[in-house]
Design a protein that fits this description.
Layout: H1 3-11, H2 16-41, H3 43-50, H4 57-73, H5 75-89, H6 91-111, H7 115-118, H8 121-149, H9 157-185, H10 188-195, H11 197-213, H12 221-228, H13 237-244, H14 246-278, H15 282-310, H16 312-332, H17 340-354, H18 360-367, H19 373-402, H20 406-431
Helix pairs in contact: 2-6, 2-8, 2-9, 2-11, 3-4, 4-8, 5-6, 5-8, 5-19, 6-8, 6-11, 8-9, 8-19, 9-15, 14-15, 14-18, 14-19, 14-20, 15-16, 15-17, 16-17, 16-20, 18-19
């Protein structure tokens, strides 16, 4: 890579094209994440419609959530395949393909005949579409982080990745708001008859629109220069990652574990936890959750901007301590008599500190050289999320039988891990101030 061009690129401020790239990437990420999570908001209705009516309710729900979980299990394979071609054929092609693979299955889910019309073929088709969604999200998230990090100046990579991560969390909020709107606008009978299809059709339509907008994005300068210099991988990228970049894989997987614990426990599991453990009504817990997600969105951008200025070591040491302190305080003062104001305030503050997850991609994109960056990041992130993201709900649920405050203790355990990773990153930075001289 031309050193003079690289220095100039790293030093310049964000320009109009950078903001356009960030906006389109974040919009597409939000809509794609919405498509991925909207399924869970209508799991009960889907279970009633896509499985035999004589099936026991517990088995129907178990199989419905099994189809939902299949999307997570498909993430590593989809991510590795798309990252492989992303490192060999270009970031933009895979970035566009991922949103197509998400939008079309989501649209088809909204049009899919139910068990009453197709019999056993209905849940099988639903499963196939969910697997395609999982493969798509496995390529979208790492691909988006790599795409924006290779477009913006190096001193703004944290801000760019934090902004993109905020877009993903906004997709969760959008899913929650639309599910709430559907459930308040239509009766249970209307939802079961046809209204459950609306969020899927909307998601498919929005995804296709985002795909069209992504046509205006350009290939990343880093990949374009590697391609021009014939400096692309000369062997299977995953082979290179597993042979030459084991420490980077381990650090990336541990930080993804922290990310998945914070998102799954604090954001996704806590509303149900509030209702079942402390008898807090659904409306109050969901409003508090929405405030936490809004705070998380700002927290991701803030964490990304901070890591650009003070480095990854201090950011994760302080950020993990703040998350641990706030989450501990939040969970340990919960009871059935807590005021709605206190609940909203503490949950929002905890959501803000969950924003440390917005700094995670900064470390991962710096951990791997450009020639295998997409593959290294995608393999580490998706494998870790499939393992820890999938196991976390079960571990916490079983732990709660012996300890009602298990969510707090689980999150705090991962915060301790975050501090240890932060200390390791700080030592690396002191030996090598740029953290990764191979970064674009």
């Amino acid at each position: 890579m031309n050193p003079h061009r690289s220095v100039a690129h790293a030093a310049r401020p964000l320009n109009r094209q950078d903001y356009k790239t960030l906006s389109l990437a974040a919009l597409g990420g939000a809509l794609e994440f919405y498509d991925f999570v909207i399924f869970v908001f209508f799991a009960v209705v889907i279970g009633n419609l896509f499985f035999p009516p004589e099936m026991p309710d517990w088995l129907r729900q178990f199989q419905t959530f099994g189809i939902f979980a299949a999307g997570y299990l498909a993430r590593p394979l989809g991510g590795i395949i798309m990252a492989h071609f992303g490192d060999l054929l270009g970031r933009k092609r895979m970035f566009t393909l991922s949103i197509v693979l998400m939008a079309l299955p989501t649209l088809l889910m909204g049009l899919l005949p139910t068990y009453a019309s197709l019999g056993i073929a209905a849940p099988l088709l639903l499963l196939a579409l969910r697997i395609l969604q999982g493969a798509a999200i496995g390529g979208e998230v790492p691909g988006a982080w790599v795409f924006v990090s290779e477009h913006v100046p190096q001193r703004h990579i944290g801000y760019a990745c934090g902004t993109l991560t905020a877009g993903l969390t906004a997709g969760i909020l959008l899913g929650s708001l639309i599910a709430t709107a559907i459930n308040t606008s239509y009766s249970a009978t209307e939802i079961a008859d046809w209204a459950w299809r609306i969020p899927f059709i909307l998601g498919g339509g929005f995804g296709l629109m985002a795909m069209y907008l992504r046509r205006w994005l350009e290939e990343t300068p880093v990949f374009a220069e590697m391609q021009a210099n014939k400096a692309l991988a000369d062997e299977m990228p995953l082979k290179t990652v597993l042979r030459d970049h084991k420490p980077a894989v381990v650090v990336s997987m541990l930080l993804t574990w922290l990310l998945s614990a914070a998102i799954v426990v604090v954001i996704l599991m806590t509303p149900t936890y509030l209702q079942k453990q402390f008898a807090i009504d659904a409306a109050t817990s969901l409003k508090a959750n929405s405030l936490a997600i809004v705070a998380l969105t700002f927290g991701c951008v803030l964490a990304g901007a901070i890591i650009d200025r003070i480095g990854s070591g201090i950011t994760f040491i302080v950020g993990s301590l703040l998350l641990g302190l706030c989450s501990y305080s939040f969970y340990h003062q919960l009871d059935s008599s807590i005021s709605s104001g206190a609940l909203y305030g503490w949950y929002a503050l905890t959501g803000l500190t969950v924003g440390i997850v917005g700094a995670v991609p900064y470390v991962m994109v710096h951990a791997f050289p450009p020639v295998v960056r997409f593959t290294g990041l995608s393999f580490s992130y998706n494998l870790s999320y499939a393992i820890f993201g999938g196991l976390t709900p079960m571990v916490v649920t079983l732990w709660m039988k012996a300890d009602p405050l298990a969510p707090s203790h689980y999150v705090n355990s991962l915060c301790a891990l975050g501090v240890l990773v932060g200390i390791y990153l700080l030592l690396v930075e002191r030996r090598q101030p740029a953290l990764a001289t191979s970064a674009g």
